[in-house]
Amino acid sequence: MKLERSVGGRRAGDTGSLWLGAVLAALWAILAVIPGTRGVFLTQANLATLLVQSSILLVLSVGMTLVILIRGIDLSVGSGVALTGTVAAMLQLKCGVSAPVAIACAVAVGALLGAWHGLWTGWIGVPSFIVTLAGFKAYRGGALVLSGAKGLSPMSDGFESLAGSIGVAATYVAVLAVLALAVALTLRDAQRRKQLSLVPQRLATRIAIEVALAIVVLAVFGTRGMPVLVVLAGAVAVAGVFVTRRTRFGRHLFAIGGNPEAARLSGIDVKKATLAAFVIVGALTGLAGVMLAARVNGVTPGSQGNLLELDAVTAVVIGGTSLAGGRGSVVGTVLGTLVFSTLANGMNHLRVDSNLQLIFTGLVLLLAVGLSKGTRS
């Protein structure tokens, strides 16, 4: 029963991703033709901006997917971004530490915060909502205390390189290498399913989608080079897909979300898996913290990362991951992040009032949760 639930969760996520991809394409088409966007939405410059804006949220959302799969949540990631960004900025501005060391320290601090959450949730049994809500308050305060409630800028040259781009040749190599790997794995999956007499996949559809995505990325960045932030986000997404679909740990996450007690009785170490999931989301929070610091060339502890935790939950839920656990996919999260960022970008072009955008975002989250619950019933 546990195995069927976990496999079914991944299969449902795959099907939902196809529909979500169609929704994203429809959104892009609509925003491209309506007069309010003044014909700039599908321009190379705007799509590049959209993907860069999505990169930090995507890194957080991939980590959030892991904890939501096991029926958890992390409400501290926004404050964690402020704290880890402050740690990196303080180390390089006040202590003269090199950018690579400061970045590594920020990621390590994030991982430690994740381990703290995992210990309270997995071993002591405190709900992750409460544990991370405490972090939501405490880490923002920690960032303010550590910085003396002052902004920190500018970042060093090492951080500026994070806000730069890789070369055009390197962009083509990276995109084509990922495409080749994706197609090879798709063909391998199809062959294994045939050998096991399982329901065949939509092989041509999947390969066509993979090729189309590569073409879109090259159309946007093929003449200017891919931003480092997008490269990092893409690497995190690929790693997330690999972990959830092709590792024992990933199968354990689905099993725990489906039925924690059944997972424990079947031999899965639920406590260690929970700890690992929170450590991963913590480390990704640290990475997002330095990415955001590099992008804005500084840290404002009182507002850095504000509401990012809610944006991440929204993107994950839009992507089809169930808040009840056991069902979802990182591919869906990637698409959910792009849908969320597309809506925000489109509303900006349509000059929608920022206060109304908050209302609309809340309605989108409610609708996504409602649809998720309806499809699960």
Radius of gyration: 20 Å
> How many beta-strand elements?
0
Proportion in helices: over 70%
- Average pLDDT, all residues: 88
How large is the count of helical segments? 15
Runs with pLDDT <50, length 5+?
A: 1-8
Q: Per DSSP, what share of the residues sits in E-state strands of 2 or more residues? A: under 5%
Distance between the termini: 18 Å
In oligomeric terms, what are we looking at?
A: single chain
Please provide the ordered H/E string of secondary-structure elements. Answer: HHHHHHHHHHHHHHH
Q: Structural class given helices, strands, pairing?
A: mainly alpha
Q: For the report, how would you describe the main beta sheet?
A: none
How does this model look, in words?
By secondary structure, the chain is mainly α. It has 15 helices and no strands. Helix 2 (44-69) crosses helix 10 and helix 3 (77-93) packs parallel to helix 5 (128-147). The longest helix is centred in the N-terminal third of the chain and has 32 residues, at 2-33. The protein is globular and about 60 Å long. Mean pLDDT is 88; it is low at 1-8.
